[in-house]
Amino acid sequence: MAVISRGFHGRRPTEEKLPPGQYVVHDFPVLSAGPTPVVRTEDWEFTLTTVAGDMHHWSWRDLTALPAERPTVDIHCVTKWSKFRTEWEGVSLDTLLDGIDLDGDYAMVQSYGGYTTDLPLEDLLDGRAWIAYRYDHEDLPAEHGGPARLLVPHLYFWKSAKWVNGIRLMDSDEPGFWEGLGYHEYGDPWREQRYQGD
After folding, report:
1. Number of alpha carbons in the 13 Å side-chain half-sphere of residue 168
2. pLDDT at 123 over 70
3. For the domain bounded by 42-191, which CATH number is listed?
């Protein structure tokens, strides 16, 4: 398996820069909307569903056979903590979706346990998102979304859905779990888009 080391270099430098209203943590707080699902890798499956209803499936073996990347990124939680230079390993969404005719402008990310979150499709492409299965050189623990989670570090971390198992493409946006409860539809930490109206 090839491993590509590519850190995320977004709009802003990562050297000890905090988005507005954030503070730095050195641990990794565990926050979840519900109980932690236990998903065995032999049972894990990821499904992309297009607007037309076509479905593309990957098993754990399929996922981990793809070229991996090791992004080092800053992450920012809507509860106001930020953690610098976190180290992950996983598959870029660009690699996973290569060769698939992607329709729709929006994506609903789905997880084991029923969690959902919505994003513009463009925020999952062009080196901006990964399906991550290792953190800090270890298999991703269940409390942090293992066996695999979405990693979208340029948005607040609720958009990086834990226990990810699929993406449904959509022509128009619709709210996911937290967005339906008043969180911002986009969630840019540099613009403090925490809640609707921010």
Report:
1. 13
2. yes
3. 3.90.420.10
Token output for 126: 């062009």
Task: Say what the pTM is.
Answer: 0.89
- pLDDT, tens digit (0-9, with 9 covering 90-100), for 6-39: 444 444 444 458 999 999 999 887 776 677 889 9
- Cis check: omega of the bond before 67, within 30 degrees of 0: no
Closest residue by Cα to residue 174 from 185, 189, 166, 182: 185
Domain assignments of the chain as residue spans, ordered by start: 42-191
The pair of structure tokens assigned to 173 is 């946006």
Residue type for position 117: T
Cα separation of 26 and 84, whole Å?
Answer: 8
Rounded-to-integer distance, Cα 150 and Cα 173, Å: 19
